[in-house]
């Protein structure tokens, strides 16, 4: 079963709004406690979640030999719990209540490089993933202390219109309106590419995941060696990134035990001696290598609860 064939299992918007009221009344720990029980129920009663956490962690453990990835019952549940807690953090980022002090870069030079590009109105194409919680980058980008300009960079994000409808609608309800636009990943076409290229030339930022094939492009993929297995990734993400001619960065935000996030960044450097096609293949390989390193770093923040390795 592919990820886009799964049905959303979120509570209704009204119930999710109740959790938001609880957050405002009793604080984050109360909502985290709710997330604990919800994730426990999901893990207990969903055969699919139990099956794929076991399979995916077994593959990660075989590749990394990291004890955290050993597919024990407790580690499989921790994987689900980490995801539930990441949704609480995501809720905070949309509401602009997430503490900027909880963000740190693995390399301070990466932070300086990105801020230099943004303050000079240079567009950036971020290829992200479903490892960790990339949403916390909203807090970094929307922090006015980072910029010399009165308006923060405009952010363009690609989301699935068919998945997570309920949760995304809830986030929209509580969101403090910021300078961003959303695009359905299923509807990317030539006009989208032209629009994104124009926005990047004006200094916008783009986020697009490179590790999930959408329902509209399930046949437009490249097959990569990932964790010693063959996995299909969406070739369109990388073609779009190359087409825009903007600086391309692979990026991931990994949560630490103390509740902070460490941001890992890797710039893609094309080889001027290669053809366009060769550089596209290089980008795909570099991204796959980056993902593998992130999985080694945080195996229990690998949020693919389906058969990625099918």
SSE blueprint:
Layout: H1 13-26, H2 28-45, H3 47-64, H4 73-95, E1 103-105, H5 108-119, E2 124-128, H6 137-141, E3 155-159, H7 165-174, E4 180-184, H8 190-201, E5 205-209, E6 221-226, E7 229-234, H9 235-244, E8 248-255, E9 261-267, H10 276-297
Parallel strand pairs: 1-9, 2-5, 2-8, 3-4, 3-5
Antiparallel strand pairs: 6-7, 8-9
Helix pairs in contact: 1-2, 1-7, 2-4, 3-4
Provide a descriptive summary of the structure in words:
The protein has 310 residues and is an alpha/beta fold. It has a single domain (3-301), classed as Glycerol-3-phosphate (1)-acyltransferase, CATH 3.40.1130. It is built from 10 helices and 9 strands. The strands form 2 sheets. The protein has a 7-stranded mixed β-sheet with strand order 1-9-8-2-5-3-4, with helices on both faces. Strands 6-7 form a two-stranded antiparallel ribbon. β6 and β7 form a beta hairpin. It is globular and about 55 Å long. The N and C termini lie close together (8 Å). 34% of the residues are buried. The model is unreliable at 1-9 (pLDDT under 50).
Q: Which geometry do the CA atoms define? A: globular
Reading side by side through the largest sheet, how are the strands ordered? 1-9-8-2-5-3-4
Rounded to the nearest angstrom, the distance between the terminal CA atoms is 8 Å
> How many β-strands, per DSSP?
9
| Corresponding CATH architecture | 3-Layer(aba) Sandwich
Helix content: 40-55%
Spans with pLDDT under 50 lasting ≥5 residues? 1-9
CATH topology: Glycerol-3-phosphate (1)-acyltransferase
Range of strand content:
15-25%
